Automatic annotation (TrEMBL):
Pfam families associated with the record: ANTAR, NIT
Molecular function per GO: RNA binding
InterPro entries: ANTAR (IPR005561), CheY-like_superfamily (IPR011006), Nitrate/nitrite_sensing (IPR013587), Nitrate/nitrite_sensing_bac (IPR010910), WH-like_DNA-bd_sf (IPR036388)
Domain of life per record: Bacteria
Organism: Kushneria marisflavi
Protein name as it appears in the record: Uncharacterized protein
Length: 415
């Protein structure tokens, strides 16, 4: 055997061994995805129940909330057990085989920290010491840290089929999380008996973002997953849920004859999300099976055939075309494009979350300014423009934001 072929054989053997190590890592990480998704599902239910508890000032759903919090704690315990097992198995392997991404490990550490902070939030919810919007934001943050771990798992894939499975799973999980946020937002509005502009805008944005996620999921999912998703469209709860969505999004008062609409919305949205969870579980299992098949193929790969395939173009009389990459290189480009899609979608969803938070803040400030302006018009017997100019001049003289002046005026009027 020539030196060139011997070198190629060693390189390809090393590449194959690296693939096997990465697949072992991915299978181990997939074992964490299940407990992660179970905990996310439990926290999503807990978050929605908290909206009803806080929206009703502790008069409704408190027992249900406590039960969901207990389920979340159980799921948290199971995740910690899975992490402990994963870390122990990792410590027992060689240094090369356990070279996980530092970012993944930091994501896991961040998730543990965020979960520890939930105990205080639950105490504040039970004591009515936090607003529904703030509680939702804090739950979103904790859930977001868990979902970020799933994204980091996607970055360990090198096989095109596995990457496709990860991309479809990632977007499905994101879509389900947005459905959970919709449940919480709707539960609050229906419990309060009205939706203001802020929450209507939030609800519509969450619905639109879900559609984007599920569209990407169906683009990359296999036929079995697409069929399951199509069957969900016929779920009997969707018709009633769609009717309640329309009521929430309409710029009118909710009908007065609705009976416990917050609980009804929560129950219908929960049935839909539970159906999504069943599909998610199937996607996780399909991902695990894909990893096992890829590992079996890599372990039984005939390296001699690989060497022959790579030597053949080198032995030709004319050099290969530079702009005609071989199949393995094309597959790698394909993998990276999928991973970039995941990252782009993750960034877009984070941007959406930031935009929603900014919009809510802006609308609330605008309402405060409008209310203060009305008070000033009534007190000073001046028109709207004059009241606004007076508030603006006061803000400039005191070097304070206009909303701070408005809030101070309202506070004085309410004393």
């Amino acid at each position: 055997m020539t030196v060139t072929s011997s070198t190629l054989e060693r390189l390809l053997a090393a590449a194959n061994a690296s693939d096997i190590d990465r697949l072992h890592q991915l299978i181990a990480l997939c074992a964490l995805v299940g407990p992660l998704s179970q905990l996310v599902h439990a926290l999503q239910r807990e978050r929605g129940a908290a909206s009803i508890v806080l929206g009703s000032r502790g008069q409704r759903f408190i027992d249900r909330y406590q039960a969901h919090a207990d389920h979340s704690r159980q799921a948290d315990t199971q995740l910690h057990a899975a992490l402990t097992h994963w870390m122990s198995a990792r410590d027992e392997t060689s240094h090369e085989a356990r070279a996980y991404s530092p970012r993944l490990l930091r994501r896991l550490a961040g998730a543990v920290t965020a979960l520890d902070a939930l105990a205080e939030l639950r105490t504040r919810v039970a004591a009515q010491q936090v607003s529904a919007d703030e509680a939702t934001r804090l739950y979103n943050r904790a859930i977001g840290t868990l979902l970020s771990v799933v994204f980091e798992v996607a970055d360990t894939a090198s096989d095109a089929d596995i990457t496709r499975a990860l991309v479809s799973l990632f977007h499905f999980i994101q879509g389900k999380e947005l459905a959970g946020q919709e449940r919480a937002c709707g539960a609050l509005g229906f419990t309060l008996g009205h939706f203001d502009d802020t929450h209507r805008h939030t609800l519509q944005s969450l619905i639109d973002a879900q559609q984007d996620c599920f569209d990407t999921f169906t683009e990359f999912a296999d036929e079995t997953a697409r069929n399951r998703w199509a069957a969900l469209a016929d779920h009997p709860t969707l018709t009633t849920l769609g009717h309640l969505r329309a009521l929430a999004l309409a710029d009118t008062d909710l009908p007065s004859d609705l009976e416990a609409p917050g609980e009804q919305w929560y129950a219908l949205a929960t049935q839909r999300i539970d159906a999504l969870k069943a599909i998610e579980d199937q996607l996780v299992e399909a991902l695990h099976q894909s990893c096992c098949r890829a590992l079996e193929q890599a372990s039984s790969r005939d390296r001699t055939d690989d060497v022959t395939a790579f030597i053949e173009p080198v032995s030709r009389s004319s050099p290969p075309e530079i702009d005609a990459p071989t199949a393995p290189v094309t597959a790698r480009y394909f993998d990276r494009s999928l991973l970039e899609l995941v990252q782009t979608q993750n960034q877009r969803l984070q941007q959406l979350s930031d935009e929603l938070a900014h919009t809510r803040k802006t609308l609330r400030e605008r309402k405060l300014i409008e209310r203060a302006k009305g008070l000033l018009m009534a007190q000073q017997h001046i028109d709207e423009d004059s009241a606004y100019r007076l508030m603006r001049r006061t803000a400039m003289d005191q070097s304070q934001p206009l909303v701070t002046i408005a809030r101070a005026m309202i506070d004085r009027a309410e004393r």
